[in-house]
TrEMBL record:
Cross-referenced PANTHER family: PREPILIN LEADER PEPTIDASE_N-METHYLTRANSFERASE-RELATED (PTHR30487:SF0), TYPE 4 PREPILIN-LIKE PROTEINS LEADER PEPTIDE-PROCESSING ENZYME (PTHR30487)
Segments passing through the bilayer: 6-23, 30-52, 58-76, 88-115, 151-170
Domain Prepilin type IV endopeptidase peptidase: 10-115
Cellular component GO terms, alphabetical: plasma membrane
UniProt similarity note: Belongs to the peptidase A24 family.
Any GO MF annotation of the entry: aspartic-type endopeptidase activity
Name of the featured protein: Prepilin peptidase CpaA
Organism: Aquabacterium commune
Length: 174
């Protein structure tokens, strides 16, 4: 079995792959999220603790809490199914404090990114008319805001929350 430090490195690589896919395709493939479920459940059943060394009860609680905090967002169509499955996998692989920290940090980051992206056009319209010349760099930037509603790549935000949480708990995140 891997040491908690090595497991944190593998977890980091896996979470970064999830973030990359979410940023690039706005989708988290099942092979990544459900693969995390399988590894987490098998590790909990065979070894008796999470790969990072948390108790089995902490990991099961984390998976339950992940469902509790993400299912309302999924039902309101604010989160995708991949985001829910990814956070449950994080719970199974880590512990409840790290999972909740990942969610809280990810939610704050996601809110900031979402507000920044949606407020581009409002920002442009509030500027003086002389700055709103068509074709200017500022006008092109504001016009590049998404016109249709697309899901925020929340998996990437959760990954950032996980990496910050690993750093805060003292586990190395390579």
């Amino acid at each position: 079995m891997l040491t908690p430090s090595a497991a944190a490195g593998v977890l980091t690589v896996w979470a970064c792959a999830v973030a990359w896919m979410d940023l690039r395709h706005r989708r988290i493939p099942n092979v990544l999220s459900l693969g995390g479920w399988v590894i987490g459940v098998l590790h909990l059943l065979i070894v008796g603790h999470s790969p990072l060394g948390a108790s089995a009860s902490s990991s099961w609680l984390a998976a339950g809490l992940a469902l509790l905090v993400t299912l309302p967002g999924y039902m309101l169509r604010q989160l995708g199914a991949g985001d829910v499955k990814f956070l449950v996998a994080l719970g199974l692989l880590t512990s409840w404090p790290l999972t909740l920290n990942s969610f809280a940090i990810g939610a704050l980051l996601g809110a900031a990114v979402g507000l920044a992206g949606r407020n581009r056009l409002m920002l442009l319209s509030s500027l003086p008319a002389a700055w709103q010349t068509p074709g200017s760099r500022l006008a092109r930037w504001a016009a590049s805001a998404p016109q249709k509603k697309r899901h925020l790549p929340f998996g990437a935000c959760l990954t950032a929350g996980l990496l910050l949480g690993l750093w805060l708990t003292g586990l190395p995140a390579p």
